[in-house]
Amino acid sequence: MAPFHPAGQNPTLALERDLDLLVHLDRLGFDEAWIGEHHSAGYEIIASPEVFIATAAERTKHIRLGTGVSSLPYHHPLLLADRMILLDHLTRGRVMLGCGPGQLTSDAHMLGIPADLQRPRMHEALDAIMHLLRSDEPLTMETDWFTIRDARLQLKSFQQPHLEVAIAASISPTGAIAAGKYGAGLLSIAATSRGGFDALGTHWDTWKHESEKHGNVADRNKWRLVGPMHLAETKAEAQEQVKYGILPFSRYFSHVLPAGPTQGDTAEEIIANNDVGGFAVIGTPDDAIEKIQALIDESGGFGTFLMFAHDWARPADTHRSFELFAQYVMPHFQNQLEAPIASQNWLMNAGGEFVNQAVGAITKAISDYQA
Q1: Which CATH class is domain 11-342?
Q2: CA–CA distance from 166 to each of 123, 181, 243 (Å)?
């Protein structure tokens, strides 16, 4: 949940819809949600994922909540680590720290950070944050943008040994290198784009190589792949529903990334091109199952699939899309369908045996009472 909301609508209500969606996902049994951080462009309007997570945690019961991501060059690492530890306690261990260099170079520009320094500064911040989370030894560290002297966290994580950390990667190897170096999880945030899909094998190989080099283990269960989906009962319905918001989303991304994930000047063109490129699933639960299986095959296996929240459809249709995913797609991959189907087949294949037993038992009970 970046989130994506076109300018021109009430931002207060848009944020409330985001919170309502998280409550909905919590009821449906989704495992986790990741909340973004942005400061410019008027489209991705959550400035502090920590504040948003604190609010969402009070409205939900089970779902884990991560920063997706905290832009490390924008924060003093001691303060960010301290805030996350506080959230870890307030949520009773439901919080995760997602790390990245910052997606929007317009954010970095306003903060006076050269774009080519965002990734190196992310690594410097991670050096500090991972030490603070893992070590009791005071940390002294000085870079050209932050200073830490004799620093230690006054609270330990609620989660043990510490709260979960994951690092974002798109197409470049930067995120996978960092995840291997620091023994963190990996968020492949563009897994369904053509370049991101092709890079999955490289992500794994880089992550595994760097992990071994630094004495860590690349754990596929901590690998999260991200892609957009909108589901309906039929593909035609899904395509009609996303006409509500897919065009402004596409126009926005054309000013954010060198090559946006969608192409076309009209909603119809974008949908038609998506059928060829396959960036998003706009279709049925069966289409979603097919896409996730393709990701499993290409990657060699991963732990979590994250649905990229996009605001393409009206709220009611969006909620229904997530319901369809929870009803049919999640249990397919979580091995929850075979047992009830086998039990039902066993009963039905018995013919009338159990019905006859029931009739016999009722008849005997009546006869016994009459006697």
Answers
A1: alpha beta
A2: 13, 12, 33
3-state helix, strand, coil in the chain (%, to 5): 50, 15, 35
- Dump pLDDT digits (tens) for 317-344: 999 999 999 999 999 999 999 999 999 9
- Is there a contact between 118 and 75 (Cβ–Cβ < 8 Å)? no
The answer to whether 36 touches 3, Cβ cutoff 8 Å, is: yes
Among 22, 47, 16, 45, smallest CA distance to 34 is for: 22
Helices (H), 243-371: 246-253, 267-277, 285-299, 315-324, 330-333, 338-348, 353-370
Give, as one character, the DSSP assignment of residue 302.
-
pLDDT digits (tens, 9 = 90+) for 253-311: 888 776 667 889 999 999 999 988 889 999 999 999 999 999 999 899 999 999 999 99
Residue 244's closest CA among 191, 142, 318? 318
Question: Do 345 and 280 meet the contact criterion of CB atoms below 8 Å apart?
Answer: no
Cis previous bond, 161, omega within 30: yes
CA-based nearest residue to 183, from 207, 148, 158? 207
Interatomic CA distance for residues 222 and 164, integer angstroms: 9
Tokens standing for residue 188 = 């492949």
- 8 Å CB contact between 60 and 23: yes
- β partners of residue 188: 169, 225
Alpha helix segments (H runs only) across the chain: 11-28, 49-59, 77-90, 105-110, 118-134, 174-182, 194-198, 200-213, 235-242, 246-253, 267-277, 285-299, 315-324, 330-333, 338-348, 353-370
Please report where in the chains the tokens 């076109």 appear, as a residue.
6
The pTM score is 0.94
- Neighbouring CB atoms inside 10 A of 329's CB total 23
| C-alpha–C-alpha distance, residues 205 and 199, integer Å | 10
DSSP-derived 3-state class of residue 360: helix
For β-strands 147-151 and 223-227, DSSP reports them as: unpaired
Q: Which residues pair with residue 169 across a beta bridge?
A: 188
